[in-house]
Each structure stands twice: as C-alpha cells, then as structure tokens.
Design brief:
about 140 residues; alpha+beta; Chemotaxis protein chec; six-stranded antiparallel β-sheet; two-stranded antiparallel sheet; 8 strands; about 20% strand; globular
Length: about 140
C-alpha cells in the first residue's frame, strides 16, 4: 500500500522506477483512464498517442476518446526521492484520496484509489469465467 502526501506526491516502488528508467531516458507520462491513472514510459505513450490519432478524426467517438485520454496527460518525472507529483485534476478524476495501489500492468503502471481497486478486483473475481472466455475469444 502507498499513500499520497499533502502535496499530491506518491513514491513509486524502486523496481517500477528502475523499469521506467531502463525503458526511456525521458520523463514518463501520466494519463487519465476511466477509473485510474496510467503511467507510461515516454516512448510507449507516444506510440499510444499515435494509435489514438490513427482513428478517423471525423468520428465523434474518436474525438471523445482523444480528448479524454490526451487532455489530462502530463509528463511526470520522479524527484530525487522516487516520488511523482500527481496534479489535482488527475487525483480528482481517479478519486485518489490517501491510500493508493500501484500496480504494474504490462506496458504501464496503474495508480488506483485503494477502495476502487479492491472493488474492481472483487468484480473481476466474481466474473472471472466470463471475462476469461471473452478474452480468449478475442485473442483467437
């Protein structure tokens, strides 16, 4: 478990900081997701942006997704003590209060409000078979 201090800073686990540094010498990006924040290595975020902009710009859904994903994205370098500063609008969006969960998920790091994370894990566990079947069909 991790906590956000009064200035909106949270310490990243050392192994995550090292992986971010290994993947890029530039600052990572912190971005909105529907229920959490995602911290991407710099180059991975640029590739993600390119995928977003590959969508038809005339589709209102593409515009909505681009606006949602990109409007809050910020470069987010760790300080000398391994902390990142999460801007107030991003903290508010993700419902981050004090206790947070920092989870490595493939290409990025997810930052969740602890209560939201626990609810999401419980939902996933309750629906595991259906979720696994859907994912299995989508990868075949």
């Amino acid at each position: 478990m991790h906590t956000i201090d009064a200035k909106g800073r949270v310490s990243l686990p050392a192994e995550f900081r090292m992986e971010l540094q290994r993947r890029s010498d530039r600052a990572p990006f912190l971005a909105n997701m529907p229920d959490f924040l995602a911290l991407y290595p710099h180059e991975d975020w640029i590739a993600y942006e390119q995928k977003l902009f590959a969508a038809d710009p005339l589709l209102p859904e593409a515009q909505d997704l681009q606006r949602f994903m990109l409007s809050g994205a910020v470069e987010c370098a760790a300080d000398g003590q391994g902390r990142i500063s999460i801007p107030p609008p991003l903290r508010e969006h993700a419902g981050l209060q004090k206790d947070v969960v920092i989870a490595g998920v493939g290409t990025h790091i997810q930052i969740w409000d602890r209560a939201r994370f626990e609810q999401e894990i419980a939902r996933t566990q309750a629906n595991y078979r259906e979720i696994a079947a859907t994912v299995s069909r989508s990868t075949n």
